[in-house]
Design goal:
345 residues; mainly beta; Apoptosis, Tumor Necrosis Factor Receptor Associated Protein 2, Chain A; 2 domains; twelve-stranded mixed β-sheet; 4 helices; 22 strands; 7% helix; elongated; MATH/TRAF_dom; hydrolase; EC 3.4.19.12
Length: 345
């Protein structure tokens, strides 16, 4: 096991161990390797939770907070949410601790500010935490137990005026089989289309989806581009408050040369889909390019759209913050590594 320093260090973090899980919230991440690719810039934000009569969320940077030039460390912050409804002169003094589960020993490494016991949250400072919570080298060392089978568990305790609340949590769980679904949609009589046009529902990852095409564009692409979006189709079977973590890509077939068009600089898009939400590209292809006969995108007044959809995971509420939750037990029964490769094309 790596030699972890539990004393005050230059980053101002005081470390200790606890056998008790975090009182107010926990985030179980079963796809860390994917997050380190996807959330390297802005960090992953948890859902909101309540403690001390206020709303909070955790923001997790899997490879350091790039905005603060942090590298090779885990960055973790407590952020106050819903502050727009508060008076402009509000101040909230908080005593908080952040948690990281040691899955080998079943206890938690606890992080506190070594310089001040209580933090004052106000309009100019709505977040507090640790730029260098723990070196990435220590975090990924399997012997330390923080990252096991691509999974880690973080948590938080937040005390305002010494108030305690019943703990809640969320689980970002991977699908057992994240197979790729390719759906081909032939759009006929294209010249007669005016407003948005939807495909028939198709299934990917056990959920129903549909493609929405704007032949004359929408938003900043209106009048100049074709716009494409992916939506969850009705009936939606997601549990309340749940979100799907989805990787997707659109293509339009060149029917002459049998090639595909997609933005030259685009990677696969990763988005959270929930009830009633859709994601896509307002400027997928210029209308001028799309209509050129030699390009083959529009032939016999028809085009062929392909959607490649992979449902990687689901974020859902936990009934308790204990690592013995059903979500955690499912992980231990399926220790298969989640992420093997990413299509960079």
């Amino acid at each position: 096991m790596a030699n972890l320093n539990l004393e005050k260090d230059v980053s101002g973090v005081l470390r200790s161990f606890s056998d008790s899980p975090p009182t107010h919230y926990s985030v179980e991440i079963q796809l860390f390797s994917l997050l380190i690719e996807t959330y390297s810039e802005n960090g992953y934000e948890s859902k909101e939770f309540e403690a001390g009569g206020y709303k909070w969320k955790l923001v997790f940077h899997p490879n350091g907070n790039k905005k603060k030039n942090v590298k090779d460390h885990i960055s973790l912050y407590l952020v106050m949410a819903g502050t727009d409804s508060l008076d402009s002169s509000w101040e909230v003094y908080v005593d908080f601790r952040l948690f990281l589960l040691d899955q080998n020993k079943g206890n938690y490494l606890v992080f506190e500010d070594a310089l001040t016991k209580k933090k004052c949250f106000h309009g100019a400072m709505r977040s507090a935490g640790f730029d260098k919570l723990i070196p990435l080298e220590d975090f990924t060392d399997v012997s330390n137990g923080f990252l096991v089978d691509d999974t880690c568990v973080f948590g938080a305790e937040v005390f305002v005026c010494k108030e305690r609340r019943t703990g809640k949590g969320e689980c970002l769980a991977r699908m057992k089989e994240a197979s790729v679904c390719k759906h081909v949609w032939k759009v006929e009589k294209f010249s007669s289309l005016d407003a948005a046009y939807e495909s028939e529902p198709f299934t990917a990852g056990g959920y129903n989806w549909k493609i929405k095409l704007y032949p004359k564009g929408c938003g900043e692409g209106k009048g100049s581009h074709l716009s494409l979006f992916l939506y969850l189709a009705s009936p939606i079977t997601l549990p309340p408050g749940s979100e799907l973590f989805v990787e997707y890509r659109f293509r339009i077939l060149d029917q002459i040369h049998h090639q595909h068009h997609h933005p030259s600089s685009a990677k696969n898009w990763f988005r959270h889909f929930r009830d009633g939400t859709g994601w896509g590209c307002r400027k997928f292809i210029e209308q001028e390019t799309f209509g050129q006969v030699d390009k083959g995108f529009l032939k016999n007044d028809a085009c062929i759209v392909e959607a490649e959809v992979t449902v990687h995971g689901i974020s859902k509420a936990l009934s308790q913050t204990s690592p013995q939750s059903q979500c955690f037990k499912t992980l231990r029964r399926t220790p298969k590594r989640f992420w093997e490769s990413l299509d960079k094309a």
